[in-house]
Amino acid sequence: MAIRYKGGGRYAYETHNKWNKEKKKYETVWTYLGIVNKDTGEYQKKQKMKHELLIMNYGDSFALNEFSVNSGLKSMIETIFKKSSEAIFALCFFKLIESAAMQHAATWLDGNYAKIIFPNADLSAQRISDLLKLMGDERLLREFFKRYFDKIYSKGGVIIDSTGLPNDISFPLSAFGHHGGVIERETRLLMVVDKENSQPLYFRYLAGNIVDVTTLKTTVREMEAMGIATNYALIDAGYYSETNISHLYENSISFLIRLPAGRMLFSNLIENVAQTLETAENRVVYGERVLYMQKTAVNLYDKHPAFAYVCCDIKRRADQTVKLLIEAKEDELSDAEISNKLKKAGIFVLLSAVGIPVSEVLPLYYLRQSAEHIFQISKTYADILPLRVHSESAFRGILFLNFLTVVLYINFREQLPQNINVESALKEMRNLMCKVYDDASVITFEPNKKQRLILEAIANTVGKF
Questions:
Q1: Residue 313 burial (CB count, 10 A)
Q2: Cα atoms found within 13 Å of the Cα of residue 268, Cβ hemisphere only
Q3: With contact defined as beta carbons under 8 Å apart, do 324 and 345 qualify?
Q4: Residue 280 contacts by C-beta under 8 Å, 6 or more apart in sequence?
Q5: How far are the Cα atoms of 28, 38, 46, 355 from residue 15, in angstroms, in the given order?
Q6: Residue 280 has what DSSP assignment?
Q7: Is 90 exceeded by the pLDDT of residue 379?
């Protein structure tokens, strides 16, 4: 290094000799390094001018990534999926931010800050296909759920529900099923949700022609094998059968289930309480709903003591009565047929293995909405439909990607201010942009008030995973 003095300043240069062919002699080449500090003798490197490359959407991916890091979710996935975790999170972010088909993921990544966060993520069509197969690896899934259960399960019981995933995939899991009066080719997705904290716990998938009533026993056993000892189950009418009820009693699992309207027990209970149900002492107010509810002891399949809660939703009864009388005229129903249908209008029956105070029955039963809400997130924000995979491993992978996206959605939502939902937060944060320069540096724009509130809430996230 050489030093030159000019105007009272000291300037450092790098020198080396270079052969000049024309002059046939060596010449000294001087390369400027920077200004020399008089006190320390060190030089400050010359700053190169940065060149702006592009402007990116910044805030949405930044917010999701900050939450993933602070909550520990990112570390958990990195431990299991190693280098592929970058592409997995990039896909989760894409599904939450864009809710679009995965064929557009690579285009999105090129214009979003996620490209900086996940420099090794490749979201090309072929790479996504390989990634889904990796995510469907049963060994990796078992490792994930073992770690996940340890952090999430409250040991307060579970909610079990299922939904149909219509598809035309040519593989054994796609079959014609009959649900809600509709026959279509589908695969059934069964979700297990924690009763206490409404967190998704586990998922199973079955062929569309396998009815719910046959799946409960296997689901409970599979969960036990993975360390989830079910002690309470909230289940819908589709799971009511002698086999399931007996299995729950044999394994000391308390439950609350809706009785299917087509069962003889349903008709008998309505007849038994017909004269006493609609009285002032049986009134129950639940939110904006007003019902009559009467509790009575029953024996399920003549061997299992339980309690039945016969409920009449007053508004629903009025609506169904009006609709029934209009349709009865068009369908030319007899007076006897009309009377029989009117008895059941607005009526539903809940069965419990143990006695529950009447005031607590509806709040407990409607916890089932947690599972329904998760299905809604899956189909709307996580964009699980339509399904376009053609191998079981890739199918399992896309269901796990959906599960992980739902987990991220629900827990991210918990951190936000009460007046801001996930959709609004991501749209608001998307407007926070950044500039990217040729030296890989990033300069973000100033956040507005609402963006600051969101960022502050995420910064206070306590590690859960």
A1: 19
A2: 10
A3: yes
A4: none
A5: 6, 21, 16, 91
A6: G
A7: no
CA dihedral 380, 386, 389, 395 (to 10 degrees): 40
Residue 362's CB is within 10 A of a number of other CB atoms, namely: 19
- Across residues 266-277, what is the average pLDDT? 92
- The amino acid at 170: S
Determine the Cα–Cα distance for residues 165 and 205; give it in Å rounded to an integer: 10
The pairing of beta strand 232-235 with beta strand 158-166: parallel
Domain ranges of the chain: 2-47, 53-135+416-459, 254-352
Q: Is there a cis peptide before residue 386, judged by omega within 30 degrees of 0?
A: yes
The dihedrals phi and psi of 421, each to the nearest 5 degrees, come to -90, 175
- DSSP lists the bridge partners of residue 200 as 193
For residue 30, is pLDDT > 80? no
* 433-465 core/surface letters (b: 16 or more CB in 10 A; e: else): ebbbeeeeeeeeeebeebbebbbebbeebeeeb
Average pLDDT over residues 257-281: 92
Tokens 């024996």 locate to 299
Single out the residue of 86, 84, 128 nearest to residue 106, CA to CA: 128
pLDDT tens track for 392-423? 888 899 899 999 999 999 999 999 998 899 99
CB 293 within 8 A of CB 300: no
Structure tokens at 221: 């056993």
Question: Burial letters for 265-302: b for 16+ Cβ neighbours within 10 Å, e otherwise?
Answer: bbeebbeebeeebeeeebebebeeeebbbbbeebebee
- Can you tell me the mean pLDDT for 226-253? 90
Question: CB of 429 within 8 A of CB of 451?
Answer: yes
